[in-house]
Write a structure and sequence with these properties.
The chain is α+β, with helices and mostly antiparallel strands and 258 residues long. It is built from four helices and nine strands. Helix content is 19%, strand content 56%.
């Protein structure tokens, strides 16, 4: 009887070893399908450190497109002269993450994941404004008021840290399903945006145009972000700084384990 039990136990261990060799692997290469559907393309490499911990690095990029959630942006960025219909943005980010799994299998089960994210957001903000050319020899031309637009372009850089939790499971032999549940990050940001008028613009037009455009930019209320604009030559430089927050979750990620 004891011999039969030992044989059965040995067979079970062999079968378990074979199953682990099929599942096996300390590496997972995966992508978030829900983010891809929103044109935020991404790839993540995860590496097991021990039975309960892993580290990973991911890269995400979104090509330039019209700003998402336009109605929300209008509430957040208050300026009636901004053309939100043609407001465009692109971004890319690198995220470094460590995971602490609560399950019994390597890189499987419920996890808690602290992370650090470094991002760049490129923006192209069309702004409408009106100016009147300077008077010539004391003669003003109010009827010559010109309505035009300019684009405020540049990059906003952010650095943030946060944490989230989710569940990861092995499917089939090599397929992994990773469900991001909820989490978030907080940090800081700073940016430099620039707009300019043609270098050969006559002074009677360039000066009032720059002053009017700067006045319109200074009307922007994007609290808690601070904007500081300066006229430099034929350009306006707008520096931004403020906090940076984000929510991470509700993601469906699939990967290949090897």
């Amino acid at each position: 009887m004891k011999k039969a039990i030992l044989i059965a136990l040995f067979a079970a261990l062999v079968n378990l070893g074979n199953a682990q060799s099929l599942i096996g692997g300390d590496n997972i290469l995966k992508t978030n399908m829900s983010a891809n559907a929103l044109q935020n393309y991404n790839i993540t490499y995860e590496r097991s450190i021990n039975h309960f911990m892993s580290i990973s690095a991911s890269y995400s990029t979104m090509p330039k497109r019209n700003i998402p959630l336009k109605s929300l942006a209008k509430q957040f960025i208050e300026n009636p002269n901004i053309d939100f219909d043609n407001f465009k943005m692109a971004n890319n980010a690198i995220t470094f993450e460590s995971r602490f799994y609560l399950g019994l299998q390597k890189m499987s089960g419920i996890y808690i994941a602290p992370y650090a994210r470094f991002g760049n957001m490129e923006v192209d903000v069309p702004i409408n404004y009106t100016y009147t050319p300077d008077p010539i020899q004391g003669i003003s031309f109010p009827s010559l008021s010109v309505s035009t637009s300019a684009s405020l372009k540049g990059t906003i850089r952010s650095q943030s840290v946060g944490a989230y939790f989710g569940m990861q499971y092995q499917l089939l032999t090599k397929l992994v399903l990773d469900l991001w549940i909820i989490g978030g990050h907080y940090g800081t940001s700073n940016g430099k945006l620039q707009t300019e008028i043609p270098a050969n613009t006559p002074p009677i037009i360039a000066r009032p145009a720059l002053i009017a455009l700067k006045s319109v930019i200074d009307q922007t209320d994007a609290n808690p972000f601070k904007l500081n604009s300066t006229i430099l030559g034929n350009s306006i430089i707008t520096n931004t700084d403020g906090p940076w927050t984000g929510i991470r979750g509700a993601g469906i990620t699939v990967g290949l384990r090897f």
